[in-house]
Structure formats: C-alpha cells, structure tokens
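User: Let's play a game. I give you a shape written as tokens, and you guess the letters that built it. Ready? Here's round one.
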C-alpha cells in the first residue's frame, strides 16, 4: 500500500513498510506484553468480526473509556473498519456528562477498563435506551470481558468485513470527541477519517523519528492530540510503549528508554522542578556546577552564541545534562508539547540538554495539529507555537483571532448545527477563539483565549496567560491564576512550589509546623513580593499584579481545578476561591 486515506489503512501500511515485533506494548500486570504488527491486525480483525456478530453496523456509536493500553487501539481500529464510530470518553468526567454523551451519541456498546468505570457506566445505563452491552478490559466478577467479543468472531463473516471496509470513504465520520464541557454542555466534535489522516500525513515527515525508534505514550488516548500522534507513530513504524500508569512514568521511562514522547507542559514542569530540587540538595562544588549548567541552559538559543558559550555548554552536557538524559531513559531525542502554553525556560533547558523540546498548537476541532515548532535548524522560535503544517492555512481576523482552514477542520458539532455555524464561517474558516500574532511573518505566538481576557473596572483589557507563563518561571511558583475581571487592579492566586519553598526555608532558617503557617510567614510573603517586583516590570502598569494569595493545596484533575489535559479550569477556581479573592480586594 502506497498511501493511507482511512485510519485503519495505517495498519496495512505499517505491515507493508515497517512491520514491527513490538508495534504496541502495554504493561497490564507488571509485565510487558508486546504485540507485533501482525498481532495487532489479527486482534483488530477479530474485534470487527465480533462486533459484526453483535449487529454493529455502519454509523453505530461505540463508547471507549480507558487509560492507554493496546486494547484501546484494537477496539478503535476494529470499530473504524466497519464504518462505525467510536466515542472516546475521559474517565474523570461527571456521571451527568456520561449520561448526556451516551444519549447524545446513542452509544450502542461500551468498553471500559476497570471496576470503577464499569460502576460509573452501569449507574447511568438505565437512562440510556440505546446501550445494549458493556465490556471490560480487566477480568471482573459478574462482568463481560472484552475477550467475549473476540470469541464471537466468525471467519464466515470475513467477506462482509471486507465489504464494510471497502465501503468506508475517507470523508466518512470516524469519531466523536466530546469537549470537556467546562463552559456548558459537552459538544461532540465530528472528525472524519480524512481529517485525522491528513493531519498524520502532514505531521509525519516533520518529526525526527523513524521505524528504528521507540516511543513512549502516557497522555490520554481519548484526547485528540495523543490519538493523532499514535496514528502517526504507527504510520512511521515506531514501536509504541504505553505507560503503566501516570504514577509510574519515571520508572517506565528507564525501562523503555524511548527516543520520543509527547507531553503537556504541566508534566514537564514537574520533571524540571524535581531536577532543580535535586540541584538544591547538592553541596559545595557539585551544587555550584549544577547551577552553572542550569544558567547556561536558560540562556540557550539556536544561533548567535559565542564559541566560549558553546564550549561551556558542551562541557555542561558531559558533566551535568548527561544525568538528566539518563533519568529520562538515556536515548530521548525529542519532545513535543501541546494543550497549554509551554514556558520558554523549559524548552530552552531541555533543548540545551540535547533533548529537543518543541511546542505545538491545535484544537480537537482541527484534528488537532495546526502548527508546531520544527526540529531542523531555523524551524523553531521559543515562545511561539511554530508555523502551520502542510495544507493548513492560518490567518488573523481583525481582532487578532486565529482562523484556520484545511482538510483537518472538523465536519462540525454533532447534532448542533447552530453551534457549528458560530465557529465555521461560510468560507470554511474555523474560528479558534484564540488570539495570536505572527512572529517573523510565519511563526504563531498565542496571546490568550478571547473569552479569558479580563476587563478591569477601568475598562482596560488584560490577557492572563502571558502573565501566568512569565511568573511561573520563578522556581517558587508551581501554579498560578490571574484574576481581576471588573476589578480595579490585577491579582493572582498562587500555589507555591513546595520543594523550592522548603529549600528557601532551609537556607533562611525558617521553621514552621503547618503549611498554612508557612504561607503566612513574613519572610515567605516577602519572598513572593520579591518575585512580583522582579517580573512585574515586564508588563504595563494595568497588567501588573498588585496583590496575591498563597494557596496550600495543589490544583489537580480530581480536585476539579484542572481539565484532563491539565489546563486550568478558571471558572471552577474562581468559585472555589471566591472568599480568598474577595479578601484580596477588600482587605
């Protein structure tokens, strides 16, 4: 096969061009299980044949709720081969959102990972008339294991399967991906085979990986970013290893020793903070060497540096950064981040350590990649999200909103033509809701979400994202959210980096019994006031942060402050910390 136009064509493409003994690998019971390219195809075909036996037809909807594991891919491809659509759902969303999505999509069968998710779906099953059955990936008492579907596979239906595959057109719907619903009812993004396959083809040639490489995956497959990237890995022929869990990423990295992975900035921030914390634990010459190397890394640029700087950086790579690389498996050559803004300091630090870190941009509605910083010389500017991929056009509206046009733009929102018309104009331009500008004529710099701009009581607009990104460069700040809508001045809720703060306390002889007591200590308050004094001058007087509140608890997905891709849920945080916010303005 010379090309792939439908997503399941990628399997035949890999078999013909880059067959792998470990195409997909998972670690379900503490032991790696590896599936060859042919194994994957065999499992996928059995899923399709089993679903045919269950009466699944073209355009039926199949729910899929699980963490990353090869079975996820088997169901995905197995559904797609029938011209049916899968509906991947985040495990962490509410039961009400589950009920809405199941009924809106009219899900016929659902595959879930474990007991918790089975219970969640079972609890709403009687409210979903379309639901005929639930299967689990884990062996659970009283539940139907997904292998039951494989057992239904009948080779007599092979001609029907081939007929159904042949009938799938690249423009046919492949999947419904529901938005998180943080601003209202979830919307089902309709993506076709061509939407996603075009994104794969345009991205594939721009990545520094080949069929000889091993890749590591831990971002949720139910998110369009990791899902599209996984299709790309398959098309390249790279071996895919799934993390055992989010808690074992560090351990799995050392086992798998990958060459490449994708991430969200929040996870890289945690890796970076741990590295810096270990630097603080050093003493004497080791500590001085560490921070000498870190200083060099944070000054990293692609060009314009002196021979002396390059000599020092080369030395730092041998003495210090080699240990960073070893902690990440020792073979890592590249990382691409998405879903939220990446601090330039992180991209610089990892890139200086010979781990090329590149930021990209996209939305579920754009399948998702619109642009990303490239890995070749001249293809990256830190602080931007790179330039558009092949066949994707980008322009700015009069107000600076980023508009996108291309084969990657969704068909629309499922059952919501009015909502679709709000974001896709008559000329086919998708209105992203993001504000941006061009750097050097082609690189895109994101300013903020249009709807997240604050307007002070004085009528001045403030974009919170640039402020938050800048202030999070301070090692003392773990998380931060700027507030100030309809207020006289801008303030901030700050979650301290406890590792850095504890090091600060040790260096300054500060003793405390509780975290709450620590955050009210005059010397700690003074340290954060110094951070404001350092970073505020980079912004206009209107934008500068006048007051702040230190919070004792980190924001998490489970706590409701972060989305599954670790974006800040501003509305939830505003509600949760309404009292603290009022204290800043009335205190």
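Assistant: Ready! My guess for every position:
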């Amino acid at each position: 096969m010379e090309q792939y136009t439908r997503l399941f064509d990628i399997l035949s493409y890999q078999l013909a061009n880059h067959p792998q003994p470990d195409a997909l690998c998972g670690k379900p019971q503490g032991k790696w299980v590896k599936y060859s390219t042919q194994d994957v195809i065999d499992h996928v075909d059995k899923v399709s044949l089993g679903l045919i036996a269950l009466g699944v037809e073209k355009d039926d909807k199949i729910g899929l709720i699980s963490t990353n594991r090869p079975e996820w891919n088997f169901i995905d491809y197995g559904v797609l081969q029938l011209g049916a659509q899968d509906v991947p759902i985040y495990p962490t969303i509410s039961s009400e959102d589950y009920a809405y999505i199941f009924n809106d999509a009219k899900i016929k069968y659902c595959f879930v990972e474990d007991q918790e998710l089975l219970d969640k779906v079972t609890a709403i099953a009687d409210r979903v008339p379309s639901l005929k059955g639930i299967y689990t990936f884990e062996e659970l008492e009283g539940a139907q294991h997904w292998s039951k579907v494989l057992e239904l596979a009948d080779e007599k239906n092979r001609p029907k399967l081939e007929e159904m595959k042949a009938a799938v057109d690249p423009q046919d719907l492949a999947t419904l991906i529901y938005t998180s619903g943080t601003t209202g009812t979830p919307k089902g993004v309709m993506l076709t085979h061509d939407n996603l396959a075009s994104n794969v083809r345009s991205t594939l040639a721009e990545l520094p990986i080949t069929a000889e490489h091993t890749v590591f995956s831990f971002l949720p497959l139910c998110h369009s970013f990791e899902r599209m990237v996984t299709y790309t890995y398959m098309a390249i022929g790279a071996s895919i290893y799934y993390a055992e869990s989010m808690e074992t990423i560090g351990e799995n990295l050392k086992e798998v020793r990958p060459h490449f992975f994708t991430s969200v900035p929040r996870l890289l921030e945690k890796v970076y903070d741990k590295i810096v914390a270990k630097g603080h634990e050093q003493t004497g010459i080791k500590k001085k060497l560490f921070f000498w190397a870190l200083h060099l890394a944070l000054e990293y640029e692609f060009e314009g540096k002196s021979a002396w700087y390059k000599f020092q950086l080369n030395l730092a790579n041998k003495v210090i950064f080699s240990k960073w690389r070893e902690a990440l498996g020792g073979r890592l050559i590249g990382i691409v981040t998405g879903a939220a803004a990446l601090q330039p300091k992180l991209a610089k630090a990892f890139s200086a350590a010979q781990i090329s870190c590149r930021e990209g941009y996209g939305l579920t509605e754009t399948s998702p990649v619109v642009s990303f910083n490239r890995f070749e010389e001249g293809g990256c500017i830190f602080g931007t999200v790179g330039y558009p991929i092949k066949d994707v056009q980008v322009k700015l509206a009069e107000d600076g909103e980023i508009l996108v046009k291309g084969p990657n733009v969704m068909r629309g929102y499922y059952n919501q033509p009015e909502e679709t018309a709000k974001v896709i104009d008559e000329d086919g331009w998708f209105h992203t809701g993001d504000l941006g500008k061009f750097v050097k004529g082609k690189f895109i710099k994101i300013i903020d979400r249009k709807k997240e701009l604050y307007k002070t009581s004085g009528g001045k607009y403030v974009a919170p994202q640039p402020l938050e990104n800048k202030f999070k460069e301070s090692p003392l700040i773990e998380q931060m959210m700027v507030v100030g809508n309809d207020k006289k001045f801008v303030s901030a809720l700050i979650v301290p980096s406890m590792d850095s703060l504890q090091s600060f306390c040790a260096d300054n002889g500060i003793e405390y019994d509780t975290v709450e007591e620590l955050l009210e200590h005059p010397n700690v308050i003074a340290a954060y006031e110094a951070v404001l004094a350092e970073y505020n001058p980079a912004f206009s007087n209107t934008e500068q942060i006048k007051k702040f509140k230190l919070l004792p608890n980190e924001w998490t997905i489970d706590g409701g402050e972060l989305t599954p891709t670790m974006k800040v849920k501003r509305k939830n945080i505003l509600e949760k910390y309404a009292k603290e916010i009022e204290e800043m303005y009335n205190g």
